Amino acid sequence: MTKSVVVITGAGSGLGRALAQRYAAAGHAVACADIRVDRADATVALLGGGPHAAFHCDIADDASMAALAQAVLARYPRVEVLVNNAGVASGGTMEDSSLDEWRWMLDLNVLGVVRGTKAFLPAMLAAGRGRIINVASIAGLAAAPGIMSSGTATAAVVALSEQLRAEVVDRGLTVHVVCPAFFRTNLTENFRGDPRFRALADKMMDRARESADDIAAEVHRQSETGRFLILPTRRERWMWRFKRWLPEMYFRRLVGAARRHGEGAGR
Fold this sequence. Notes:
With 267 residues, the chain is α/β, with parallel strands linked by helices. The protein has one domain: NAD(P)-binding Rossmann-like Domain (Rossmann fold, 3-Layer(aba) Sandwich). Helix content is 54%, strand content 14%. The chain has a 7-stranded parallel sheet with strand order 3-2-1-4-6-7-9, sandwiched between helices. Strands 5-8 form a two-stranded parallel sheet. Helix 3 packs parallel to helix 4, helix 4 packs parallel to helix 6 and helix 9 crosses helix 10. The chain starts with a strand and ends in a 6-residue tail after the last helix.
């Protein structure tokens, strides 16, 4: 028996597909939304069809996101879980990053979350229950040099999630924000910015111990326990505590590491 309906943007690949598989395995119906419907269809095929369905969405387009909500709610009676997962990657310093890169990054990674939330929030509030999971990145907490637009955008998603959580806590909804480190996925497929940082990101993903399936498992587990800030890997949990408890020591270590790797601090 289907437990509930989960909407996942960017469900055609990477973490989105892994999340779709995780929720389907737990008995949920999954609305797989992606800008490439062929990929969403492929995810649905992996899930075995049945109650699952593919939908087109462009998180950069207001009308597309409104149409997604309309189409999903026409098929399913209500949505219990919304995962704002779709996003893009960039890399570069303030000095080197272009304003076009900034507009692109903020429009997709920040306003994309806003569009998804605004599209589904009214129905979730009317139902008096639901869960919203926003996928950001550890870059939004780490304050590392060399990933200026990406780090700023994901930090904005963390702040947005904190504020939204406070707004809906008394209306039956819970909010979570996910801040994964690098893991094995296709994150840099649509990368913009300094190619050196793309090469670095690819290298770090290749070296990562965790797969998209591992991250999806932690997102599902920790969100079900009610945890707001989801840090899927142990190393990043300690990094976050270090930054909070000893911020100046953390900063010195961060800058030192960046200097050793030539990633933007003093070059």
